[in-house]
Design the sequence.
């Protein structure tokens, strides 16, 4: 089982993160090994702090309006290895060790398994290979 | 100069993309070579269609409320090599050949050049090395 490693963000860094009218910031999740973009979800200030402290991705579920620690139900936990905030502070990026079968509820490794252009060949890390 | 290659998306694929209350969808841009996540910006239905047809990223600038074809002013054009939509159709991913010095208006290659955790060492493709 992968190890959870907290990230020691300081208050000055956290203060640079800006939230939208709903108090949310988009969080991109990238596979630390394959570098595939796995998914995008949303965090609020509380779940960002939880993510960094616990070393696992914790999101705010907009549909369920509740804290959603990725993998607690599915087993597809994400162990954070690096975390970044962007130039404007309005988007986050997490490099993770993806546990379980993949990041996507469809069973695909990445949520981005469908390329535009019917004849397009997806890159290996985005291929539709099931878990 | 990199070549612009249109992506022949069909209407059925485009119909799977969902837009928020403002008619926008987040678009993640990833470097096709280094696999670094370069930036995140927003598209509407019009600029998504323009992006695929022109083979270059075209966003909707929320601050300026106008069509923003990346690089027309800065020279930092993005030539699309692959384009994906996610399982829910509410996030897009573009793998691009980044022209010019980088994707970020700060002069960094990626907008995600600052890791949380003051002692954290960013991955090479996210390092703060200026253009």
Sequence:
């Amino acid at each position: 089982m992968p190890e959870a490693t907290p990230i020691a963000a300081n208050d000055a860094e956290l203060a640079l993160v800006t939230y939208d009218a709903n108090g949310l910031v988009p969080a991109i999740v990238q596979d630390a090994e394959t570098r595939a973009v796995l998914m995008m979800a949303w965090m609020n200030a509380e779940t960002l702090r939880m993510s960094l402290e616990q070393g696992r991705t914790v999101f705010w579920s907009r549909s369920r309006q509740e804290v959603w620690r990725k993998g607690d139900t599915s087993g597809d936990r994400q162990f954070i290895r690096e975390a970044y905030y962007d130039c404007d502070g309005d988007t986050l990026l997490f490099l993770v060790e993806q546990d379980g079968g993949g990041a996507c509820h469809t069973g695909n490794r990445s949520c981005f398994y469908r390329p535009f252009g019917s004849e397009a060949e997806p890159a290996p890390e985005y291929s539709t290979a099931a878990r």
Strands of chain B lie at 25-31, 37-43, 58-61, 66-69, 78-85, 92-98, 114-115. DSSP finds two helices and seven strands in chain B. The mean pLDDT of chain B is 95.
